[in-house]
Every structure is written in C-alpha cells, then in structure tokens.
Amino acid sequence: MGTRWVLVVAALLSFATGIAVSEARLAFAPPPDAVAHGSAEARDAGLARQFYRGLQAALDGDPEVLASVLAPDFLEHGCAPGGATTALPARAVAFGELFPGSTLTVEEIIPGRERLSARYALEPGASTANDWQITGMGQWTTTDVLRLAGGRVAERWCAEPDRLVMMGQGTADDVEATGSGIRRFTVELFEMGPGSAISITQRDGERRWVWVTKGQATVKRPGAAPETLTGEMATESGSGTFTVEQNGREPARVLVATLAPLASPSTGVPGAWVAGGPVEREVVAKGDVDVPAGVTLDAHWRQVVLTAGTTLSWLGEGGVQAIVPLGGAAVATIGGSGWVPHGGSGVRASERAELLRAPDWLIASGGAVTLTANGDGGAELLVVELPWK
C-alpha cells in the first residue's frame, strides 16, 4: 500500500509540474501572432532599406534597382519638387548627374503594422553641369513614410519635397549657325492632346530645335523617314514644312526653340504653324540676340527646381539663354545684357537684380547669370540655352 501511494503521489506531482512548466512557457513566450508580426516588421524594414539602397544606386546612375522595388502603381505624396510628375528613379538619376558623388545615409527606420517611417540624410556632391553651378544645397535630413504591399513599396509620403532639383533635361549635337547679326530667339511650348499634330513652316536662315519633353511624338519631313521622339530632340534647318504628330497613350509636351532673322515672317510666330486637333501653344520667351559670325551652336534645355536658399549660376561667356519661371519666383542677377519683360514692356538689365516670376521671362547673353530662389516656396524654372563656340 505504501509503495502504491508513493507512485500515485509521484504521478500527481509530475502532472502538476508539467502544467506549471507549460504555463511558465506560455507566460514567457510571445503569442504566435506576435512572433509573426515581429518577423513581418523585420521583413518590412529590410524592404525599406532595399528602397534606399536603390535610391543610392539611382543617384550613382543605375535606376533599375530602385524601379524593381517600386509597385507598378507607386504613388508619391508631397515628394516631387514643384509638383513634378517625373518618376522618382529618373529624378534621382538626374540629381546624381548634376551632383556626382552624392551619398544617402539611412539613420533610422521605425516599423509599423501598415506603414513605416524612415529618417535619412542626403549629402550632395559637387555640382558639375557644363557651365551651370548650383550652390547652397548642403546636407539635409528628412523623413519619409512608406506603405508596403506585396513585397514592394506602394506609396511614399514626404515630410518636405525632396531636393532632386533636376526634373528633366535634354541636349543637342553641335550645329553651325545659319547666319550672324541680330536674330530673334523664341521659345514655345505645345501641349498636344491625343491624335493632334502641328505643321511648322521653316524658311531659309532659320534654325529650330524640337524636343519632346513629355509623352511621345513623331517628326515627319518631306522625303525623309519619320522620326519618333520620346524625351529626345530633332534639329531643323533649311526651308520647308515639317509636322510633329502626337502618338502614344499620354498627351505630349513639345518644346520648340527658334533662331531666325528679324525679317523672317515666322518671328511674329502667328502663321508659322498650323494645328490639327487639341493643341495649346504658348510663347514662353522671345527676344533679340546678337549672334557672332562663324560660330557653332550647342543647345540644351533643363527644368529645375530651386529650393529655398539655393542658387543657380550660369558661368558661360558666349551664348544666349531663355529662363522661364513656371512656378514660384527667383531673383535674377544679370551680367552682360539681358531683357526682362514686365507686363508687356521691357527693362534692359545690366549687373542688376530683377525679380523673375511667371509670366515674365529672361533673355540673357554675354555674361554670367545668377538665380536665387525667392522665399520659402522656391522656384521652378525652364532654361533653354544656346551656347556658341
């Protein structure tokens, strides 16, 4: 009897001990959903770091890593400067080209169940953009909120617009000027709806540069194969009529720069082009410039956003540029000569500071130009330049 009672008591103690150990394990172990949530947070933090590694790669010239992390319908909120629609990978690549050697450092990632926040610092490299120089950028630290879905970054909210200041740019091969002396320099923007076209009549002595800065369009010339442009440029010289036709799903924005003799009928612009379909046209800059004999012309366009405290300087000594404010305002200090229209009249400027805001424009030649963002809102600028050599 004594032995049997000992066995019974031992069994009861063993059962009770098992219950106590099990309860202890349950007390100290996280519940299954907490374990899953913890691993999800680690996974999301890893994806966020991959996003910023991709952003660094884009700054270094490779947008593919960043593009592979973004969802097909990726959205940004308050991130693009000036309300730009340029995709983030393209903005980052353009910024890296303007500021080579830029570095991005992630300082903190705070995970959440649906979104996470990340604080990072960006140190721009030295600006090297032909004759352009941007100063006052400095290092800045900011915070993003990211929403992740399906293993991709689906949305990004920014505490302040990013400072990827170059929103778009294009260039052209060197071409010979078609004449010298006083010439009319005109910059036009065409917003082309689906199925629309513009026909431009070009006369002897004129030179045109046609860039498709958004969407897609095809340039057609008599006796030549059609040329489809997407973010590219076509140069037109000689006489005749050429046509630019919108194609693709999205509307196209076409930028046309013209250098023409003052006697040319096209310098008055009306009658030089005929539209078919939904086309809106705006002359955004026009002025007279003195072109030296025997020069070769280069051509560039850039769309930039100057954030508060940032200065853009053009250091070239030969050529002409049109500077068009698309938003905000900038203070322009002009060396050499320039023409700043105000309400239809003009002010000749030399070594003067002028406040530049839409619908004004600046035509400058023969000296340096410095542009400084006016106020906290910054300025968005379209710059078309024709350096000559």
Low-confidence stretches: 1-37, 266-271, 343-347
Mean pLDDT: 76
Q: Give the number of DSSP strands.
A: 26
Termini distance?
116 Å
Explain what this protein looks like in three dimensions:
The chain is an alpha+beta fold. It has helices at 2-28, 32-59, 64-69, 88-98; strands at residues 70-77, 103-110, 115-123, 132-135, 140-149, 152-158, 166-176, 181-192, 197-202, 207-214, 216-220, 227-229, 233-237, 240-247, 252-261, 273-276, 279-291, 296-306, 311-314, 319-334, 337-342, 345-349, 352-357, 362-365, 369-373, 379-387. The strands form four sheets. Strands 4, 7, 18, 19, 20, 21, 22, 23, 24, 25 and 26 form an eleven-stranded antiparallel sheet that branches. A hairpin with a 2-residue loop joins strand 21 (337-342) and strand 22. Helix 2 (32-59) packs across helix 4 (88-98). It starts with a helix and ends with a strand.
Reconstruct the topology from this structure.
Blueprint: H1 2-28, H2 32-59, H3 64-69, E1 70-77, H4 88-98, E2 103-110, E3 115-123, E4 132-135, E5 140-149, E6 152-158, E7 166-176, E8 181-192, E9 197-202, E10 207-214, E11 216-220, E12 227-229, E13 233-237, E14 240-247, E15 252-261, E16 273-276, E17 279-291, E18 296-306, E19 311-314, E20 319-334, E21 337-342, E22 345-349, E23 352-357, E24 362-365, E25 369-373, E26 379-387
Helix pairs in contact: 2-4
